[in-house]
Amino acid sequence: MLIALVVGALTRSPKSKNTRSFNYPIKQEYSCVQYDQNHIQLYGDPTSWNLMLASMSQMAFEGEGKLDVLHIGGSHVQGGFLSDKLRNNLIELFYGAQGERGFFFPYQLAKTNGQRSVKCDFTGTWTSCRNAVADHHCDWGMSGINATTYLPDARFSITTMHKDSLLEPFSEVRIYSSCGDTTSFAYQVARGQLDSASLTASYRRYTFSEPQTSLEVNLLQTDSNQNHFTLQGIYLGASEHGVSYHTIGVNGASTHSYLRCTGFAEQIKSIAPDLVICGIGVNDANVPADDFDSGLYMSRYDSLINSFKAANPSVCLLFVTNNDTYYQKRFSNPNAIKIRDCMISLATKHGGGVYDLYAVMGGANSIRSWADAGLAAHDYIHFSKRGYELQADMMTAAIAELLGDYLARTNP
Questions:
Q1: pLDDT tens digit string along 74-130?
Q2: Running DSSP on this structure, what letter comes out for residue 328?
Q3: What is the arrangement of strands in the sheet containing 127-130, beginning at the earlier edge strand?
Q4: Residues 206, 197: contact at Cβ < 8 Å?
Q5: Whole-structure pTM over 0.90, yes or no?
Q6: Burial of 294 (0-12, 13-18, 19+ CB in 10 A)
Q7: If phi over 0 gives left and psi between -120 and 50 gives alpha, with beta otherwise, what is residue 322?
Q8: Domains, the chain, with CATH or none
Q9: Cβ atoms of 3 and 397 closer than 8 Å
C-alpha cells in the first residue's frame, strides 16, 4: 500500500490555471513503523506557519521565493544521512526549485564523521574543539565545532554534491571564523574569478562572476603575531530562489552545548532561517529519569529560540521528538516522553509544530524492533542509513500533508 499525498490537486494557483501535484509516496513495508502517526501537529498561534506555508505555495506554483531551513541537533544531524535526504526531498518537493548547500561544517577537517555529500581535502595538522565536550573551551560560532591549525602554510578545499553525486555549484562563499582576531592567519580563496569580497565580525564573504564547483582556501602568515587559524563553518550559496538547507549538528550536543557558543546568536542572524527543525533532546534525556529537569530543558531551549526569533521574528519552529533510545543499553529511556511533553509546551508557547518521531517509531522499546528490521543500530540510539532516510521521507510526507491542508483551507 502507498500513501500518496497529492497536494497540488487540491487547489489552483491564484495566478495560474495550471495545477501541479505533490505526490510523495511512502511504501508501507515495515510492520514496526506506525504510519498512521506520521503527521505534524501545530500548536498555539499559527500565524508564522500560515505565512511560511503561503510562501511555500508560491514556490510550488509560481517558482518564486526562497525557503531557508535550519536543522539543528546532535549526532543524528552531524551524521548527515537524515539531513542530506531531507534536503534533497524538499528541493524535489517544489517543482523546478533550485537548491543551495547553505551553512555546514566540513567535519573531515576535524577528523570526525559527517555528511557524505561534503568532501574536504586538507594539508597540515588540524585539531577539533566541540561544544559537547565538557573540558573543551573555545570560541565557538553557531556550528558548535571548530577546526584549528597552527601551520601557516596549511590549506583546505571543499566540494559538495547533491543527489546522484553531481557537483553542486555555488556563486557565494562565507568563511566563518574569528575575523577580528589579529593573531589569526590571513588566507586566500583560490579558483574562480572573484567579483567581490567583504568582511563582517563573523565571516568573510566572497562572490564569483561564474558559478564554482570547488572552494580552495590557502593560509598565509602576513604578520609575525599570526599563529593560528580556526574555522567555524562554511556557507555556499547559489540562488535567490529555492531551498537553502543549513545544518548544525555535533555528536553528543545538548541544549546546554549550544548555549556555550558565544557566537551563536550573531551568526544565526546571517542565515535568518524561515524554518528551524529542532532536534535537540536525545543527549539532554540521557540521564537517570529522576535527574531530568523539564523546566531547565525548556528554559535552555527558550534561550536558543530567542536567538532564532532575533534573526527572524516570523521563524517557524518544528520540534522533532526523541526517538526511542535505550539508557545504557538496559531499558527504554522514559525521559523521551518527558522531552515530548516539553516540546509540546514549547510549541504551544511559540506557535510551533511537533513531529512525534517517538510515536511514529511505536513508543517504548520500539528501537529494538527498528534494529531488528535493519532501520536502527544496535547501540539502540542511532539509526542505520536506511532508517535515517526513511525518517526523512516520512517527514517530507508530513510536510506535504501540512501544505495540502493549508491549500485546502485557503483555496476551497
A1: 999 999 999 999 999 998 888 677 789 999 999 999 999 999 999 999 999 999 999
A2: T
A3: 127-130, 145-149, 229-231
A4: yes
A5: yes
A6: middle
A7: beta
A8: 1-98+241-412 (3.40.50.1110), 101-238 (2.60.120.1360)
A9: yes
